[in-house]
Amino acid sequence: MSKICTSAYAIERGDHACVAFGGQEDHRRLLSVHLSAALERGEKILYAGDIDCVESITDWLGDDTAISAPPAARGQLTVRVVEGYDGFFGPSPGAGEAFAATVAELLRDETTLAQRTGYTGLRACLVIPGELGTGPEPVLDQERSIDRLIADGRPAGVSLICQYDRRRFSSELLREVERSHPIVLDPLRAQQRQPLLTMLPLDRPLGLLLNGEIDRSNMPEFAAALRAALRVEDDFHLDMARLYYADVDAVELVAQIAMSFGSSRRLILRSPAPIVRTTLRIYGWDRLPALSIVDF
Fold first, then answer.
1. Cα 193 to chain center, whole Å?
2. Residue 194 in 3-state DSSP?
3. Which residue has better confidence, 70 or 63?
4. What is the CATH number of the domain that holds 235?
5. How many CB atoms lie within 10 A of CB 25?
6. Exposed e or buried b for every residue in 244-259, given b needs 16+ CB within 10 A?
């Protein structure tokens, strides 16, 4: 399935995401964003990586100008060296699964501790080490194994964001990594405060121009705007060329509107993103008689 590009503030407990950052400045900004998001949600935050990563984060936290998140958020942060990183990227069979088991144990321990100390959940950022040219299998085995654990709710109450330094991994491997994750963050768009949605009326043809993302945070506004389609007698167009993400509930609402149309008019989706197309196809909504997909 095509992946989601969304805001770090929209990451929910139970999500498994990844982000490829471009250097130390990107990494520092992402740390600030995750600290702020954890503070707002009442979550404990864990940053786990190799010794170099831990030393860098410790240095940033000691420099008041390096991290822009509120000081209160820093008290919610735990930084851990992950046992087993040394030699993880070797050729031994099963290295990825073994490392995933180590990560799963770490997440269980930290989630239990977060719950006992009154936090609503755990936001875990796992910084993946490695050198350019590393073979993909250990990394992908790890990601697939961890994704199965997160999807099964083991442990419950955790969101996991795997972070990769673009300078240390091949572009081919990073593409495979992104395909293995349900959610992909862009390092710049991830810093938005919330997933933003703007909706502008279209007069010719009649409809809405959508820009941004639709999820539970702005679903009521989208539903209210979409009800306008029920009050017109002509075809209704949704220009989705700049709609980067829509969750299943939003796509289902679009399908419900199309199902309410009679045989004399259509709901026309203009250039929907791959995630919208995939959701429509999975649920069979792309075969609705009154729904059309048009590319521009």
1. 14
2. coil
3. 63
4. 3.30.750.24
5. 11
6. bbbbeebbebbbebbe
Amino acid making up residue 210 = L
- Give tens-digit pLDDT for 82-93: 876 655 545 555
pLDDT in tens, 263-274: 889 999 999 988
Q: Taking the CA atoms of 63, 67, 71 and 75 in sequence, report the sign of the dihedral they define.
A: negative
For residues 184 and 3, the answer to whether their CB atoms sit within 8 Å is yes
Tell me if 17 sits within 8 A of 180, measured CB to CB.
no
Domain count, the chain: 2
Which DSSP symbol is given to 7?
Answer: -
pLDDT class of 103 with cuts at 50, 70, 90: confident
- Among the three residues 132, 160, 191, which one is the final residue of a domain in this structure? 191
The set of residues, in sequence order, having a beta carbon less than 8 Å from that of 212 and lying 6+ positions away, is: 195, 196, 197, 198, 242, 243, 244
Pairing of strands 207-214, 197-202: antiparallel
Same structural domain for residues 81 and 162? yes
Residues contacting 282, CB < 8 A, separation 6+: 1
Residues 14-30 have pLDDT tens digits of 888 999 998 888 899 99
According to DSSP, the β-strands at 158-165 and 16-21 are parallel
Three-class DSSP category at 156: coil
Q: Which residues pair with 80 in a beta bridge?
A: 48
For residue 141, give its domain range. Answer: 4-191
**CATH code of the domain in which 74 resides:** 3.40.50.300
pTM for the model stands at: 0.68
Amino acid at 137: E
Average pLDDT over the chain, rounded to whole?
84
Is 153 found in the same domain as 12?
yes
